[in-house]
Amino acid sequence: MNNFIVRTITAVFFVAALVSCFLRAEAMILLFALITGLTVWEFTGLVNNRENITVNRMICTVAGVYFFLAMAGFNSGITAISVFIPYLVTLIYLMVAELYLKHPDPVGDWAYTMMSQLYIVLPFSLLNVLAFQSGAEGIHYVWTLPLSVFVFLWVNDAGAYICGSLLGKHKLFPRISPGKSWEGSIGGGILVIAVAILVWYLTEQYQLNETGLTAVQWAGLGLVIVLFGTWGDLVESLFKRTLGIKDSGNILPGHGGMLDRFDSTLLAIPAAVVYLYTLTIF
């Protein structure tokens, strides 16, 4: 019971912090810059426990936070594209430094260093692509899109848990995550479609649908987030199984680490960006 209370309190504060941060661009940027840094720090700490792996945690973390802030500045129209030059120089340094450090597995160091940036930093940074939209009057902040990614993931988790508990018989991916079922995944997806249509209706009613997405397009966005969010969860499960750990950390009482809480978003955010840009093409 005590663990349940701790998990509940943590979840309430976690959701409240995320939802409220999206109401202002500055709050979103500051919170997710912090989340990016904490997640990279956690990831690099985990991989450094592997034999012969030595990743520079500090530089990877600082570089990741810088890239997130650079993306925020560029997408909001505050900074020029030259803001990315220090980040590129840092990546070059991390590659060249292995020539002189004489670590036992430089290829492994390179791989995990770049993975920290591609797997964690890039997806979080793409939130800025969702949040800042160009229009006739210039660039403006749109909080509905980035927030919807998290809402759809939360709804999918709740729907999958309920439907899986009641109806789950066929395992979705028993080798990696034996607790997931096809029935739960389908139930979660259906619930997300319903919520996505509700989001369309509410944004239309209150004139918040600044992206102009139709009900079908909102539903499509929900399905994309469900599919790639599930894969993101499985990817992190495979990562933890490979390392032989249960939780990625303990920074969130009762909920594990940063990777445990944001695993689904690390694939869902890039997928949402690709989906929305594809709609603009066709």
Structural notes for this entry:
With 282 residues, the chain is mainly alpha-helical. The protein is built from eleven helices and four strands, in the order ααααααββαββαααα. A two-stranded antiparallel sheet has the order 1-2. Strands 3-4 form a two-stranded antiparallel ribbon. Strand 3 and strand 4 form a beta hairpin. Helix 2 packs antiparallel against helix 5 (106-125). The longest helix has 29 residues, at 215-243. The mean pLDDT is 93.
Question: Secondary-structure blueprint of this entry?
Answer:
Layout: H1 2-21, H2 25-47, H3 57-75, H4 85-101, H5 106-125, H6 127-131, E1 132-135, E2 138-141, H7 144-167, E3 171-173, E4 177-181, H8 182-205, H9 215-243, H10 258-262, H11 265-281
Antiparallel strand pairs: 1-2, 3-4
What's this entry about, in short?
By secondary structure, the protein is mostly helical.
Distance between the termini: 52 Å
The proportion of residues in beta strands is: 5-15%
Question: What's the story with the biggest beta sheet?
Answer: 2 strands, antiparallel
Shape: globular
**SS elements, strand count:** 4
Q: State mean pLDDT (0 to 100 scale).
A: 93
* SSE order: HHHHHHEEHEEHHHH
Please report the number of helical segments: 11
Identify the strand order in the major beta sheet: 1-2
Report the uncertain regions.
none
Q: Residue share in helices? A: over 70%
Rg measurement, Å: 20 Å
| Helix/strand class | mainly alpha
